[in-house]
Amino acid sequence: MKPYQTLLPSGAHWSLVMRSGSALTLTDVEGGANVGLLFYNPENLLERYNAPDTLKCQHTFRLTAGHCLYSDMGRIFCGIEHDSFGWHESVCGTLNAAQTAARFGASTYQQARNLRHQNGYDSFLVELAKYGLGQRDMASCLNLFAQVRADDSGTLQLERQGAAGASVRLRFAMDTLVLLHTCPHPLSASQDYPRQPVQIELDAQHAPLPAMCLERDENQRGLRNNALYQLQGEM
């Protein structure tokens, strides 16, 4: 089966279920794109992406190839199989409507149609509602193509936002509901609402997590948690 491809414009949102073993590739086509991501267990929507555990158990602040993305049940949703950008963050969250209006100006669908200034928080809420979820089910998200550092005072700074042609491939270790948006990063320094699209490629050809994602003992334990969960589902 050939991979499925589509181009998602800026200020858009989408959701889909990725099956265990399949791969999702996201590409910053023009440079400067942001992709906000959340993950949920489609069989138990109470289980969701846990940013603190993802960073803590792998002793890292940045996420790149070889890292895994964890649920709050200690299981691995997916591993970063390929990354040509080299730095993705999971501490800044996403902009809401008031913050977006303050930064880029107010813009409604009635005024601007698909060029409105959509925000990441409401984008996630729209996708969550499709699965019976709401505000209380929101979690801290992952932002792709965002290099963020903390200065000596602890202030977070966005040092680099995307690069033309940069891509990230996620290999899934369990069935996963993926929510994503292409709205601006909270620390974006752009004066105008960013308009960079993102290419999405879905590959249903199954493969296990790559060896580089399992070099840490913590990730091997996480994958064993996956195996136990999947075994219980087969009994």
UniProtKB/TrEMBL annotation:
Signal peptide: none annotated. Residues 8-177 form the DUF1989 domain. InterPro entries: DUF1989, UAAP1. It comes from the Bacteria. NCBIfam families: urea_degr_2 (TIGR03425). PANTHER family: RE64534P. This is Urea amidolyase associated protein UAAP1. It comes from Pantoea sp. BJ2.
